[in-house]
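Cross-posting from the chemistry board since nobody answered there.

I work mostly on the small-molecule side, so proteins are not my area. We synthesized zinc ion and want a rough idea of how it might sit in this target. Sequence and SMILES are below. Is it possible to get a predicted 3D structure of the two together?
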Amino acid sequence: MILAYHRINSWYVNDALSVSAEMFEFQIRFLLRKGYEPVSLRQYVREKDSGKVFCITFDDGFADNFLVAFPIMKKYGIKPTIFLIAHSIGTEKIHEKYKDREKDRYLKWKEVQDMLKAGVDFGSHTLTHPKLTELSRKDAWNEIFGSKKFIEKNIGQRIDFFCYPYGIQNEKVREAVKNAGYLGAVITNWKGKHDLYSLPRIGVYGHNSLFAFRVKLWRANLFSR
Ligand SMILES: [Zn+2]
């Protein structure tokens, strides 16, 4: 299964996108104790889901992924994939939902580089996080292909995975992602058909109790059979 997170921190208690550091570690330990093996998204795609592996992904590229989540993942040998909003990384931009310049900033390229060296993988989450289905063909292509080139230039490594903003996509968008040279793309939806360009993920949110987390895992296992 593939898990989808946004932020890990201990300064927001009522934010759906923020899972506390304690809960995040608890969830990892729970999975390991249940015999799930952590794999990278690359391995996951290559080896197919045996039902006993898990893969961790993050959307948007918040700085707390580096400051809080990264040390925890290192401790357990987890190699996540972080989907970057290319034109927000290394800038002063703040996500519309937040306002604190330090707590809510996006990753710096230097932080991306440091994680890269430690085996973290990066994917594209477009240039500016638009609803891809509402764009012209040309603009959508620029968001999909342009972000791939932009991130590759900044990190000096191939970008192979893509994440649709808001999980919104259709046949045309999926086709463009494929043509842009991505090996796969993730969604956060269990309805419809699944293939390499619509890999379903379990969204984990700040308000999810450990019980809710367990129910989500159970449902995901049911659906993937
Ligand atoms: Zn996003």
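Reply from a structural biologist on the board:
Welcome over. Reading the output above for you: The CA atoms of residues 209 and 215 lie 10 Å apart. The radius of gyration is 16 Å. Happy to explain the token format if needed.
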